[in-house]
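Mods, move this if it's the wrong board.
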Amino acid sequence: MAKKYYNKDDKTVAEVIVLGIVRALWWLIRLPFKSFNKPKAGINNIDRNYILKKRSEINKMLNSENEYEIKHAILEADKLVDFLLKKKGYGGHSFSDRLRAAKEFTNPKLYEEVWKGHKVRNKVAHDEKDIKPQVIIESTQKLLKYLEV
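Not the wrong board. Structure tokens:
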């Protein structure tokens, strides 16, 4: 009768079963921590084109003589900055939460300008009457500066 020699790499049935169980357990342990279909933070070309398109719309509104279009421009600029903050991966439930999260990664002067622009936007959104169109235009331009970075 011929001797059967075993290769070192051959595994017994028990080893294969134990290895399978360990792999299955490892997969189950990691499962809750996986992010399924979660987009990575950052902007892609589609987002860039969207931002450019919205910026040009906002600039058209700013050049208008209509006071309501000027007010609408700051609301749109604020939404656009919020969109960018979300795309960059800053967390929070509101614009101000996301802006605070971005503070340490943003130029301090730019951060303050965006914050001031957001405050004027809040005044416009809550229908305060004493805001001059020039202040709204300047604040909108401050918000748009964030998009240049």
